[in-house]
Amino acid sequence: MQIARISLESGPRYAIVDRDTDEYVVLAGDPIFQGLDTTGQRVPMRNTRVLSPIIPRSKVVAVGRNYAAHIEEMGSATPENPLLFFKPNTSVIGPDDAIIQPAWSNEISYEAELAVVIGRPCKDVPIERVDDVIYGYTIANDVTARDVQRAEEQWARAKGFDTSCPLGPVIDLDYEPSDVAIRSYVNGELRQDGRSSQMIRPVNELVSYISHAFSLLPGDVILTGTPAGVGTIVPGDTVEIEIDGLGTLSNELRST
Ligand code: MG
User: From the CA of 200, how far away is ligand 1's center (Å)?
Assistant: First the structure.
């Protein structure tokens, strides 16, 4: 099952994606907290605006340097432990929203990433119980001001600025993440072409590790690192990220 968040005249609503009829089945509430009761309303997919499927209430935790080929292209070293950083919830935007290039950066890069959505409060989760705390999976773009990342030891500004975390288009609740293709395109041209099986630490190890540092709450999002092929984009460029079974997340870069 896949969940989307859509914009209706009455406001943002969660919905089940019905691919048989190309409709959204509108839900009564937030599915993470209130389950999957429907209102009975069905909305055609066509001409319906899709929003970020989640606005994290507490945090986005991101993992750096989790693919060997990406570490190599950056000239970085493989970290002994997963390298963690935060992106604030104010960085989240949805499908087709514009990424706004800050005036203080001249080098914006895209990073295609598989994203995990947490479904229940948890802490110190053993690897073998990680599946129990995952709500589902979506696509993320870990947009990065690369010049600022190089210049500053902490990545808060380089990776946490407004619009630097596109998410969507859906959350898949039945997803098998261990070996799926993760691709990005800039203006239709293939740039990244990796597989989740190339992660140095797979999803279950990452979620367990992160939960030993931070309590995870429903709606928290974890970004699992990017494969090789990152590069600079300029205003007017459109980045599309495609992950098997999760659809395509598309966002254009615009100047301030
Ligand atoms: Mg990243």
Answer: 13
Give me 28's structure tokens.
Answer: 């009564």
pLDDT band at 194 (very low <50, low <70, confident <90, very high): very high
**Which CATH superfamily, name and number, covers 60-255?**
Fumarylacetoacetase-like, C-terminal domain (3.90.850.10)
For 116-150, how does the pLDDT look when each residue is reduced to its tens digit (9 = 90+)? Answer: 999 999 999 999 999 999 999 999 999 999 999 99
CATH architecture for residues 2-50: Roll (2.30)
Taking the centre of ligand 1 as the mean of its atom positions, its distance from the CA of residue 36, in whole angstroms, is 32
Going from the Cα of 31 to the center of ligand 1, the distance in angstroms, rounded, reads 27
Phi, psi of 232 (to 5 degrees): -85, 140
What's the pLDDT band for 256 if we cut at 50, 70, 90? Answer: confident
Q: Are strands 181-186 and 11-18 parallel, antiparallel or unpaired?
A: unpaired
Taking the C-alpha atoms of residue 12 and residue 33, their distance in angstroms, rounded to an integer, is 16
Q: Which two tokens stand for residue 134?
A: 């995952």
To the nearest 10°, report the CA torsion of 24, 26, 27, 28.
Answer: 180
**How far is 246 from 229, CA to CA, in rounded Å?**
20
Separation of 9 CA from ligand 1 center, angstroms? 35
d(CA 192, CA 228): 6
Q: How far apart (Å, rounded) are the C-alpha atoms in residues 208 and 127?
A: 5
Does a cis peptide bond (omega within 30 degrees of 0) precede residue 95? no
Considering the entire predicted model, what is its pTM?
Answer: 0.97
